[in-house]
Amino acid sequence: MLPLLVLLPAAITCSFTNTTIISVSASHATLVLEERGTVNISLSSIPDVDVILNITTSADEIIRLDERVVKIEEGKKSISVGFTAGKRGGTVYISTVLVSPSLNMSIADLSLAVVHSQALCTVTDILGWMCFTVWSVSFYPQVYKNWARLSVVGLSFDFLGYNFLGWICYSVFNFSLLWVGEVKREYYRVFPHGVINVQLSDFCFSFHALLITAFTIIQCLCYERRGQTPSILCRLILAGFVSAMAIMLIVAASGCITWLQYVTIFSYVKLAVTLVKYSPQVYMNFRKKSTEAVSIYQFLMDLTGGAISLVQMGIIAYNFDDWKTFIGDFTKFGLAALSISYDLIFILQHYVLYRQSPPPITTALDTEPLFKEEISD
After folding, report:
1. DSSP 195
2. Which residue, 54, 68, 86, 128, is most buried by CB atoms nearer than 10 A?
3. Rounded Cα distance, 226 and 361, in Å
4. What gap in Å lies between CA 244 and CA 236, rounded to an integer?
5. Cα(309)–Cα(332) distance, rounded to whole angstroms?
6. Single pTM value for the model
7. Residue 102 has what DSSP assignment?
8. Alpha-carbon dihedral of residues 317, 321, 325, 327, nearest 10 degrees?
């Protein structure tokens, strides 16, 4: 199958005078490899002098321009520049820089990408929303079980605390890579023609997860909990993460690190939280020799969503011939891999180790686990 050129939906404009705007758009949504395409450059008003623009790409081997210096003659508003899709690759910027007349320097960018198959782009979009659906639904069995029991006894409060911070961090990370221009530009400077693996569905999922986790915490405040509270260790870990992120915000604002590096810290916090957040519940199940307090359906759906996410990332990497950013977006890959590993542990506990266990009876012994979730008088 011949690779295709996909133009990412972005036509960015900028002003070079108080009234005139440079606009950049593309003639085609897709191009077969070596097929011709055009970039259209237009002005919002007719100039009274010749306007000379310099055009560059961030990857000449992927996008081959016919001309690099163009002139919009006096009395005209637009010009078209031809280009050819050279080879498969990730995001490429076509930039226009005002050369003359002597006005404020202005830049307008257009994002392009060369892919193997447009159909695979559609497949990855579908898989992304499948992940969103499966992962989002996976939260509700636990919410329902809490409501049906009118109790959260046996549910790890440490797990909820870690989860809440984790989803805050993941939402900030996804939002920044999707919509914060400075962070995106820094990303493409690090990966000159890479692919941002974060999709709209990723942000929707993480923000929904944040809301439903907050609702579950409210359930813990309203339903029977027998004095159960987050452990001291959990509180210290969460306070440490929050303090570190606040300090790094000051460091980023002072210019010592880039905003991309700062946002990446959020992703590492999410990974660290995911690494430890399941452990209290796994240990609580072990001490009680029962999984009665947790819904197994959330872990079955979480496992399904993680598998779909890994498949989606693999297809994106193949489609753009960009395996570097497959590993580069270690957050998304790591979250899926870690979640699958813990899901398998919960499934093993539920269906094999404690399958025939009676309903748990909460005793003082249950409050002495490794992570010491506290029970007050």
Report:
1. -
2. 128
3. 12
4. 12
5. 8
6. 0.71
7. S
8. 60
